[in-house]
Amino acid sequence: MTKKVRDGMSSLLKITDLHVSVEDKPILHGVSLEIRQGEIHALMGPNGSGKSTLAYTLVGHPKYEITGGSIEIDGTPLNELDPCERARKGLFLAFQYPVTIPGVKVSDFLRHAVTNVRNPERKDGESLIPMREFRKELKQKMEELGMDTEFARRYLNEGFSGGEKKRMEILQLAMLQPKFAILDETDSGLDSDAVRVVSEGVRKLSGPQMGVLIITHHERLLEYNVPQFTHVMLAGKIVETGDAALAHELHNHGYAQIRERHPAEAAEEQSRQNRPETVGVATAVAK
Ligand SMILES: Nc1ncnc2c1ncn2[C@@H]1O[C@H](COP(=O)(O)OP(=O)(O)OP(=O)(O)O)[C@@H](O)[C@H]1O
Ligand SMILES: [Mg+2]
After folding, report:
1. Which of 44, 123, 171, 175 is deepest in the core (most CB within 10 A)?
2. Is 232 helix (H, G, I), strand (E, B) or coil?
3. What is the Cα–Cα distance from 58 to 14, expressed in whole angstroms?
4. 103-114: per-residue pLDDT in tens?
């Protein structure tokens, strides 16, 4: 396997029976998923079903504790690696709620990130990628994404509008060119022009070298980037996997049928939400 990968075979991100708790509260209950480089997967599911939890866990957010199961790229376990090491292995997450880092300029942040990801053996203090080369690439990518190059001089996300933050995430994706990109609602909160820019940006960036997991509640991003697989999460489990037609069905009809087909998870969802007035309904469905 390892040899084949070295010879140019596509990489595999393999998630096996993953259990995750946040502050001792179990959220994911055995998620298994395989994404190959070059594939597009959609992950859908109602609010609170655990989609962002999976995304954060994959990139190693310290709050999300793996209590069982594994995450591997080409057979190498990632469970114990810190977020930087995971990025070097080719994982990238575009955040649902991008963080602001006052005092850190976009261009400095990206130059460090790009250097570290492209040169995984680099030791602290060794030189960054050459400024001239970096500037040229950054400028070109910003123009492609319709971003004002002035943004490179600003502090990361400070004072950025919601749409500008999401574009910033796509710029990071464009610069880092990861093997596996997880896009957590990169299309939410955008006006329709911005959704188009982001959707086209993702389409341009994806290809045989990138596997993509698109978490979304909207259809537009998936129209531009048609998923080969659509997974539906309910109460911390992937309860169904289908193709692009499943995503379309969920957009049109919502999750009622999914809940009917998976009564145990629907009941679990209700009990999690701890809404006494609806627990009766869930119990009825579960029977
Ligand atoms: N850091 C945290 N602290 C406490 N609870 C958390 C934390 N992160 C997630 N949870 C809980 O885990 C559950 C799943 O949340 P998650 O954000 O993964 O859902 P989601 O599927 O991404 O929902 P949405 O579609 O609204 O983004 C929720 O009940 C949430 O409150
Ligand atoms: Mg979320």
Report:
1. 44
2. strand
3. 10
4. 999 999 999 999
Rounded to the nearest angstrom, the distance between the alpha carbon of 6 and the centre of ligand 1 is 37
CA–CA gap between residue 278 and residue 123 (Å, rounded): 56
Kindly report the three-state secondary structure assignment for every residue of 199-217: HHHHHHHCECCEEEEEECC
Q: Whose CA is nearest to atom 28 of ligand 1?
A: 48
pTM for this model (two decimals): 0.89
Which chain residues have CB less than 5 Å from ligand 2, an ion? 51-52, 96
Residues 10-25 pLDDT 10s:
999 999 999 999 999 9
Residue nearest to atom 7 of ligand 1 (CA): 22
Domains of the chain in start order, with CATH, are: 2-254 (3.40.50.300), 255-287 (no CATH)
In this structure, which ligand is nearest to the CA of 49? 1
Which of 174, 168, 172, 161 minimizes the C-alpha distance to 147?
Answer: 168
Residue with tokens 């396997």: 1
